[in-house]
């Protein structure tokens, strides 16, 4: 199920009553102090993720939590930044990026569901081998389950996870940009970092070039140093190729090889080795299951926060009920 369907109630509802465009609301005075607090909070949150856990999936889930918190904090920050022409232009430019982020959440959710299906086939094979010595028919069905697991991964290879464009702000951007543009810049940077990390860690073999990851902010923004430190650690963690998904695949491959080596498709010849390999697969799959649940919850949080921010952005271009009441 796409997250768009799951959280349909959060999508903004557009009314076409009257056929007339509402007059823009009066622009409140910008509040740079609020945006400064937003920048400071982002810098602190980025720094709080370090050092990253050794688990790539756990690190990715924590980064998703950070992105969700940043999206939530952006709503009041953008509201306080004012509604002049420059602020409206920055918010309007971010609408497409918001759709791209929702698409990325859907793609990651689909990848997690895929990994869960592979886990179910591994669990089926383990169930069939749970009573050793396994009968020839049970061993054969276990081999078939593991073959289906691998065939599904190779024949229906997922498309690469979508990337989100990253633009390194020029030096002095913190002083030159409007308050709204600074908030949007931070949102785009953290979103791009999360998307790059996801594509590298669970991207199904689609590796990003070294030129595109890690992402580096060279401007003078308050959160730039923390952002660059986190991006660097994510790059090292992803390059180590120690993902829990890889560990499960390696354990399953070893078990499948032992089952294939049985005499004429019968029961396993080396039952002790099969038992040890099955126990390793069970351990790895259970570890992966907990991490996938954690990542799924974090991505759901990003999706909900992105929907709420999008609703707020769209609402900034319309006259709300409170405004209509005041005009009466």
Describe this structure in words.
With 328 residues, the protein is mainly α. 38% of the residues are buried. The C terminus is likely disordered.
Task: Identify the notable features of this structure and list them briefly.
328 residues, mainly alpha, 11 helices
- N- to C-terminal distance: 45 Å
Portion of residues in beta strands equals: under 5%
Instruction: Give the tally of β-strands.
Output: 0
Averaged pLDDT: 80
Topology as a string of helices (H) and strands (E)? HHHHHHHHHHH
- Decide which structural class fits the backbone: mainly alpha
Overall morphology = elongated
Gyration radius, in Å = 25 Å
Q: Main β-sheet: number of strands, strand sense, barrel status?
A: none
Query: Portion of residues in helices?
Result: 55-70%
Number of helical stretches of at least 4 residues: 11
What low-confidence regions span 5 or more consecutive residues with pLDDT below 50? 7-31, 205-211, 322-328
Task: Write a short abstract of this structure.
The chain is mostly helical. It is 68% helix and 0% strand.
Topology:
Blueprint: H1 3-6, H2 32-48, H3 56-80, H4 85-128, H5 136-155, H6 173-176, H7 179-201, H8 224-239, H9 244-260, H10 271-315, H11 321-327
Helix pairs in contact: 2-3, 2-7, 2-8, 3-7, 3-10, 4-5, 4-7, 4-10, 5-9, 7-8, 9-10
